[in-house]
Design goal:
- By secondary structure, the protein is an all-alpha fold.
- It contains 13 helices and no strands.
- The protein has one domain.
- The two termini are about 25 Å apart.
Length: about 300
């Protein structure tokens, strides 16, 4: 049994994407803790991503502007707004919890993929989403109880959920664009919109970073590029709902980085919910084969 049979290429790309985005979030939280404003972090990320994306497109010898310019621009606008929300939540919430709240988006993505892209939602994906939502509820609900000492800031929660909604819309747009556009062009449009928007918003609050922080800001852009590339490739080889379901593993990566770098110790509820999320992801990978064995085809 080869690797493609056990773990399809789309799944591997999504796992790479999840790791890239988890490392990116850790870098964002780190530089924020050292006084760098959110919009400035967005600008730094966009600058690095714009340079890398441009070089990658030119190396392929294709036009940087693509075919469906309006939809590409819309992807950039929606993605930029979602990114700003996500970065705000990362800088104001514990890393694991911020990531968990962002990951409501696969539910929206599966529904939007069904409505706008006519993609069927298969049983393993449904089970995966249900288990992941159950895991998310297990992790978040203790923090939502009245009088809890571990309660999360309401405004940050709302911003995180807004970012999740924006991410789901952006992912479905990526899936639609993948029919006509090269993945590198789709990625290029994101920083093309994000850079001028974030520079405009951070103009009066710019903080001159130290050399070490500059390096961390560069890493934000590099890890972003890894995450975006993995995401775009995954969306080209898997359905929108199924591919996004695998991205839940970023929660595990982020929780581990939160413990290691920021001394954020997840509660037993986080571990329990994380286990449900991993179980859901595994069923999404192997569910069809399991169903085929339990219910053999009459053919």
């Amino acid at each position: 049994m080869n690797l493609d049979t056990m773990l399809p290429s789309g799944v591997r790309f999504m796992l790479l994407s999840a790791l890239g985005f988890a490392l990116m979030s850790a870098c964002v939280k780190y530089v924020s803790n050292h006084g760098i404003p959110v919009f400035e972090i967005v600008a730094a990320r966009a600058l690095v991503s714009l340079i890398i994306s441009y070089l990658y497109v030119k190396r392929k010898g294709i036009s940087i502007w693509g075919n469906n310019k309006k939809l590409l621009a819309l992807r950039g606008i929606v993605g930029t707004m979602a990114l700003m929300c996500v970065y705000y939540s990362v800088t104001t919430l514990p890393l694991a919890e911020a990531t968990i709240l962002q990951y409501v988006h696969p539910v929206f993505t599966a529904i939007l993929g069904f409505v706008f892209l006519k993609e069927a939602i298969k049983l393993p994906t449904v089970v995966c989403i249900l288990l992941c939502l159950l895991g998310l509820f297990v992790i978040v609900q203790p923090n939502m109880q009245a009088g809890s000492t571990e309660s999360l800031p309401t405004f940050s929660i709302l911003i995180a959920l807004l970012g999740a909604m924006g991410s789901s819309i952006a992912y479905v747009i990526v899936r639609r664009l993948s029919r006509t556009e090269d993945s590198s062009v789709i990625i290029f449009y994101f920083p093309l919109v994000a850079l001028p928007a974030s520079l405009l918003l951070t103009w009066n609050d710019f903080v001159v970073p130290s050399f070490d922080i500059v390096l961390m800001l560069i890493l934000v852009g590099i890890f972003t590029q890894v995450g975006q590339l993995g995401l775009t490739k995954a969306m080209q080889t898997q359905s929108a709902g199924q591919a996004s379901a695998y991205s839940y593993v970023q929660i595990i990566f982020s929780a581990a980085l939160g413990v290691w770098i920021f001394n954020e110790t997840p509660s037993v509820w986080t571990y329990l919910g994380g286990s449900l999320i991993v179980l859901g992801a595994m069923f999404n990978v192997f569910g069809n084969k399991l169903i085929d064995k339990l219910v053999p085809s009459k053919a």
